[in-house]
Amino acid sequence: MIKPIIRSATAADLPRCLSLDPSFETDYVWQMDSHSQAGQINVAFRTVRLPRPMKVTYPRDVKQLNAGWQACDAMLVADDNRAVVAYVALAKRGAQAAAWVQDLIVTKMARRNGVGSALLAGVVRWAREEKLAWIMIEVQTKNYPAIQFCQKQGFNFCGYNDHFFANQDIAVFFAKAVH
Predict the structure, then answer these.
(1) Is 53 within the bounds of a domain?
(2) Measured between alpha carbons, how far is 78 from 9 in angstroms, rounded to an integer?
């Protein structure tokens, strides 16, 4: 278990954040099924086991990440006393009173060690300070590990966009009330 320090990012952290490898492997995906019949549209997501593990790249490239960071309202990093091992970029969406998690990246060696949970605890603190009511997270349907993480953290599925990412991957959205 890694005990990271969660803090606001500084300009000096940005090169390290860019160097983190956000790719992952998965044996499962969320598959979307959509049926339209007699004025009714049914959409469902189901977990599908892949025939072999799939390596998935992050849906945003370096240029998109930099642009997102310039526009975000806050960026937190997880520091293990030697280096930044994770970060989260946040935006405030006033109409929804929501903290929107734009990017949450944990380096491979720090995954499944409590770092993502520690970052989300930092997001909750930030959202409370900003008087926001919700935390929203967007995830690729291919990112089954992140979907499971969101559900484990108490987030509930609340929608999707089938053309959300530049690479045309489907985004699923999860929300959690800030208490």
Answers:
(1) no
(2) 9
Query: Could you tell me if 23 and 57 are in contact, meaning their C-beta atoms sit under 8 angstroms apart?
Result: yes
Evaluate whether residue 101 is within a structural domain. yes
pLDDT tens digits for 30-85? 999 999 999 899 999 999 999 999 999 888 777 777 777 778 999 999 998 889 99
CB 147 within 8 A of CB 160: no
Q: Is 137 strand, coil or helix?
A: strand
Cα angle, residue 145 at apex, residues 103 and 158 outer, rounded to 5°: 65
Q: How far is CA 179 from CA 69, 129, 149, 176, in A?
A: 27, 12, 19, 9
Q: pTM here?
A: 0.91
